[in-house]
Design brief:
With 205 residues, the protein is α+β, with helices and mostly antiparallel strands. Helix content is 54%, strand content 15%.
């Protein structure tokens, strides 16, 4: 073997990777970048799932509340028709008491007094029974006319009261829960000052 061959064989070969030195990141840096991207993706997915879970919980809570309200309303308003029929009984009891003049009732004695007291007790028990089932009697005298709960039958000139004040109750009204069961038939004042926010108040029958 010649000296030239010996020198050529002894010369170290330059690794191929050295030619590309500085053009690609080390394997460790590339792995860290991939891990960082994966963590970011997982965090985004976790936030998205958490948001969906919170929305689902909120929807379930709203559904629960609506269901509870619907059940309560169905129980309360299930007696609407029956309660409306019972109102005629309450009206007749009240008419019976009002048919006795006040001075006669005050001077009543013996069995007649006991009869009047018995009718009054019956009326109180009847109203309490209605209240236990969510039905309440309206006492609108002196209140501002409310077309949702009152029906104006006539107007009474009275400048001492704000216009549209209920001055007389012809027939009692009732509500069941927060809904009108029967409007009160009333007489209202006119000629007085209009209450604040009562522009355009219509009390016509």
């Amino acid at each position: 073997m010649s000296n030239e061959d010996t020198q050529n064989s002894a010369a170290p070969e330059t690794p191929a990777t050295d030619k590309a030195a500085g053009t690609a990141p080390p394997a460790s840096e590339k792995t860290e970048a991939e891990i960082h991207a994966l963590i970011e993706a997982l965090n985004a997915e976790n936030a998205n799932l958490k948001d969906k879970a919170l929305r689902t919980l909120a929807d379930m809570e709203n559904l629960r509340r609506r269901t509870e309200k619907e059940i309560a309303d169905s129980r309360l308003y299930a007696v609407t028709n029956f309660a409306r029929d019972v109102l005629s009984v309450a009206d007749n009891v009240r008419r019976g008491l009002e048919s006795v003049p006040a001075d006669v009732a005050a001077a009543a004695d013996g069995p007649f007094k006991a009869l009047i007291e018995g009718i009054e007790l019956t009326e109180r028990d009847l109203l309490k029974t209605l209240e236990r089932h969510g039905v309440k009697k309206l006492e609108p005298k002196g209140e501002r006319f409310d077309p949702n709960r009152h029906q104006a039958m006539f107007e009474i000139p009275d400048e001492s009261l704000p216009h549209g004040t209920v001055t007389q109750v012809v027939q009692a009204g009732y509500v069941i829960g927060d809904r009108p069961l029967r409007p009160a038939l009333v007489g209202v004042s006119k000629g007085g000052p209009k209450p604040t926010g009562a522009a355009g108040l219509d009390v016509s029958a």
